[in-house]
Protein backbone atom coordinates (compact mmCIF):
# COMPACT_ATOMS: atom_id res chain seq x y z
CA UNK A 1 0.00 0.00 0.00
CA UNK A 2 1.42 3.38 -0.94
CA UNK A 3 1.70 6.32 1.38
CA UNK A 4 -0.96 9.05 1.24
CA UNK A 5 0.75 12.30 2.27
CA UNK A 6 -0.81 15.45 3.70
CA UNK A 7 1.14 18.66 4.36
CA UNK A 8 0.29 20.17 7.75
CA UNK A 9 1.58 23.73 8.29
CA UNK A 10 1.20 24.95 11.86
CA UNK A 11 1.04 28.38 13.47
CA UNK A 12 2.53 30.48 10.67
CA UNK A 13 0.53 33.43 12.00
CA UNK A 14 1.38 37.12 12.13
CA UNK A 15 1.33 37.36 15.95
CA UNK A 16 3.52 34.28 16.38
CA UNK A 17 5.95 35.25 13.63
CA UNK A 18 6.29 38.64 15.33
CA UNK A 19 8.24 36.87 18.09
CA UNK A 20 10.61 35.14 15.65
CA UNK A 21 13.92 36.95 14.98
CA UNK A 22 13.96 38.42 11.43
CA UNK A 23 16.65 36.08 10.07
CA UNK A 24 14.85 32.98 11.37
CA UNK A 25 11.49 34.31 10.18
CA UNK A 26 12.76 34.86 6.65
CA UNK A 27 14.43 31.46 6.55
CA UNK A 28 11.48 29.42 7.89
CA UNK A 29 8.97 31.20 5.64
CA UNK A 30 11.23 30.53 2.65
CA UNK A 31 11.48 26.83 3.55
CA UNK A 32 7.75 26.49 4.22
CA UNK A 33 6.91 28.37 1.01
CA UNK A 34 9.05 25.99 -1.04
CA UNK A 35 7.37 23.04 0.65
CA UNK A 36 3.89 24.51 0.10
CA UNK A 37 4.59 25.22 -3.58
CA UNK A 38 5.72 21.62 -4.06
CA UNK A 39 2.61 20.25 -2.33
CA UNK A 40 0.35 22.41 -4.48
CA UNK A 41 2.17 21.38 -7.65
CA UNK A 42 1.89 17.67 -6.75
CA UNK A 43 -1.74 18.03 -5.56
CA UNK A 44 -0.82 16.94 -2.04
CA UNK A 45 -3.61 18.03 0.33
CA UNK A 46 -2.68 20.93 2.61
CA UNK A 47 -3.97 21.68 6.11
CA UNK A 48 -3.18 25.05 7.70
CA UNK A 49 -3.44 24.94 11.48
CA UNK A 50 -3.58 28.09 13.59
CA UNK A 51 -4.16 28.89 17.25
CA UNK A 52 -6.92 31.41 17.90
CA UNK A 53 -8.87 32.53 20.94
CA UNK A 54 -11.99 34.53 21.59
CA UNK A 55 -11.51 38.09 22.84
CA UNK A 56 -10.23 37.94 26.42
CA UNK A 57 -8.93 34.37 25.97
CA UNK A 58 -11.77 32.69 27.94
CA UNK A 59 -10.55 29.27 26.73
CA UNK A 60 -7.29 29.61 28.67
CA UNK A 61 -7.15 28.15 32.17
CA UNK A 62 -4.87 29.76 34.73
CA UNK A 63 -3.57 26.22 35.33
CA UNK A 64 -2.12 26.16 31.81
CA UNK A 65 1.30 27.70 32.41
CA UNK A 66 2.23 28.35 28.76
CA UNK A 67 -1.12 29.57 27.47
CA UNK A 68 -1.65 31.77 30.53
CA UNK A 69 1.56 33.54 29.55
CA UNK A 70 0.22 33.99 26.01
CA UNK A 71 -3.12 35.36 27.23
CA UNK A 72 -1.35 37.81 29.55
CA UNK A 73 -0.04 39.59 26.45
CA UNK A 74 -3.46 41.12 25.71
CA UNK A 75 -5.14 40.74 22.34
CA UNK A 76 -2.62 38.30 20.86
CA UNK A 77 -4.06 35.54 18.64
CA UNK A 78 -7.64 36.77 18.94
CA UNK A 79 -9.99 35.48 16.24
CA UNK A 80 -10.68 38.00 13.50
CA UNK A 81 -7.62 40.15 14.18
CA UNK A 82 -4.80 40.56 11.63
CA UNK A 83 -2.39 39.00 14.13
CA UNK A 84 -4.29 35.72 14.14
CA UNK A 85 -4.16 35.39 10.35
CA UNK A 86 -1.65 33.30 8.41
CA UNK A 87 1.38 35.20 7.12
CA UNK A 88 0.81 36.46 3.57
CA UNK A 89 3.35 34.09 2.01
CA UNK A 90 1.57 30.99 3.35
CA UNK A 91 -2.12 31.90 3.17
CA UNK A 92 -4.48 29.04 2.31
CA UNK A 93 -5.96 28.93 -1.17
CA UNK A 94 -9.27 27.45 -2.27
CA UNK A 95 -9.35 23.71 -1.69
CA UNK A 96 -6.94 23.78 1.26
CA UNK A 97 -8.12 23.15 4.79
CA UNK A 98 -7.91 25.54 7.75
CA UNK A 99 -8.06 24.23 11.31
CA UNK A 100 -8.39 26.41 14.40
CA UNK A 101 -6.97 25.11 17.66
CA UNK A 102 -7.13 26.42 21.22
CA UNK A 103 -4.10 24.56 22.53
CA UNK A 104 -0.51 23.81 21.50
CA UNK A 105 -1.05 20.50 19.69
CA UNK A 106 -2.57 20.61 16.20
CA UNK A 107 -5.02 17.81 16.97
CA UNK A 108 -6.27 18.56 20.50
CA UNK A 109 -10.04 19.23 20.32
CA UNK A 110 -9.85 20.14 16.60
CA UNK A 111 -11.24 18.55 13.46
CA UNK A 112 -7.76 17.71 12.17
CA UNK A 113 -8.24 13.98 12.75
CA UNK A 114 -11.57 14.07 10.89
CA UNK A 115 -9.95 15.81 7.91
CA UNK A 116 -7.00 13.38 7.86
CA UNK A 117 -9.38 10.43 8.06
CA UNK A 118 -11.50 11.76 5.19
CA UNK A 119 -8.32 12.16 3.11
CA UNK A 120 -7.19 8.61 4.02
CA UNK A 121 -3.90 10.18 5.11
CA UNK A 122 -1.09 7.87 6.20
CA UNK A 123 1.86 10.29 6.05
CA UNK A 124 2.04 13.72 7.71
CA UNK A 125 4.58 16.22 6.43
CA UNK A 126 5.05 18.88 9.12
CA UNK A 127 6.24 22.46 9.18
CA UNK A 128 5.58 25.10 11.79
CA UNK A 129 6.50 27.39 14.62
CA UNK A 130 7.65 26.31 17.10
CA UNK A 131 9.63 23.10 17.02
CA UNK A 132 9.34 22.68 20.81
CA UNK A 133 5.63 23.57 20.78
CA UNK A 134 3.19 22.59 18.06
CA UNK A 135 5.64 20.40 16.16
CA UNK A 136 6.68 18.38 19.23
CA UNK A 137 3.06 17.94 20.34
CA UNK A 138 1.95 16.95 16.85
CA UNK A 139 4.83 14.52 16.26
CA UNK A 140 4.06 12.73 19.53
CA UNK A 141 0.36 12.48 18.75
CA UNK A 142 0.93 11.41 15.12
CA UNK A 143 3.36 8.69 16.22
CA UNK A 144 0.81 7.36 18.71
CA UNK A 145 -1.79 7.41 15.90
CA UNK A 146 0.53 5.35 13.64
CA UNK A 147 1.14 7.98 10.97
CA UNK A 148 4.34 8.07 8.97
CA UNK A 149 5.81 11.46 9.92
CA UNK A 150 8.24 13.77 8.16
CA UNK A 151 9.51 16.96 9.78
CA UNK A 152 11.01 19.32 7.21
CA UNK A 153 14.10 20.95 8.67
CA UNK A 154 13.83 24.31 6.86
CA UNK A 155 10.10 24.59 7.59
CA UNK A 156 10.41 24.58 11.40
CA UNK A 157 12.02 26.98 13.84
CA UNK A 158 12.11 27.76 17.54
CA UNK A 159 13.15 30.59 19.84
CA UNK A 160 15.36 28.13 21.71
CA UNK A 161 18.17 26.97 19.41
CA UNK A 162 19.33 24.23 21.81
CA UNK A 163 15.84 22.71 22.09
CA UNK A 164 15.34 23.03 18.32
CA UNK A 165 18.57 21.16 17.52
CA UNK A 166 17.99 18.53 20.21
CA UNK A 167 14.52 17.79 18.85
CA UNK A 168 15.64 17.58 15.22
CA UNK A 169 18.79 15.57 15.89
CA UNK A 170 17.98 13.42 18.93
CA UNK A 171 14.27 13.28 19.79
CA UNK A 172 12.27 13.31 16.55
CA UNK A 173 14.32 10.70 14.64
CA UNK A 174 12.92 7.93 16.85
CA UNK A 175 9.40 8.75 15.60
CA UNK A 176 9.79 10.81 12.44
CA UNK A 177 11.98 11.32 9.43
CA UNK A 178 13.77 14.66 9.67
CA UNK A 179 14.73 15.80 6.18
CA UNK A 180 15.64 18.85 4.15
CA UNK A 181 13.00 20.28 1.86
CA UNK A 182 15.16 19.39 -1.16
CA UNK A 183 15.52 15.77 -0.05
CA UNK A 184 11.78 15.50 0.52
CA UNK A 185 11.04 16.93 -2.92
CA UNK A 186 13.55 14.52 -4.52
CA UNK A 187 12.07 11.53 -2.73
CA UNK A 188 8.51 12.42 -3.77
CA UNK A 189 9.16 13.49 -7.38
Automatic annotation (TrEMBL):
- InterPro entries annotated for this entry? Isochorismatase-like_dom, Isochorismatase-like_hydrls, Isochorismatase-like_sf
**Which GO molecular-function terms appear in the entry?**
hydrolase activity
The segment(s) forming the Isochorismatase-like domain are: 6-183
- Which SUPFAM superfamilies does the record match to this protein? Isochorismatase-like hydrolases (SSF52499)
Alphabetical UniProt keywords: Hydrolase
- Which family is it part of? Belongs to the isochorismatase family.
Name the record gives this protein: Isochorismatase-like domain-containing protein
Q: Which taxonomic lineage does the organism of this UniProt entry have?
A: Eukaryota, Rhodophyta, Bangiophyceae, Galdieriales, Galdieriaceae
Amino acid sequence: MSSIPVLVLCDFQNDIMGFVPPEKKESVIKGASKLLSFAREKKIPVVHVGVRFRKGHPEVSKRNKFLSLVSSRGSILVEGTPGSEQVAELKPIEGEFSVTKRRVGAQFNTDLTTILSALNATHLILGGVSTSGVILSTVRWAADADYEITVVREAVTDGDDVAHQALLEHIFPSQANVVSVDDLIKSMS
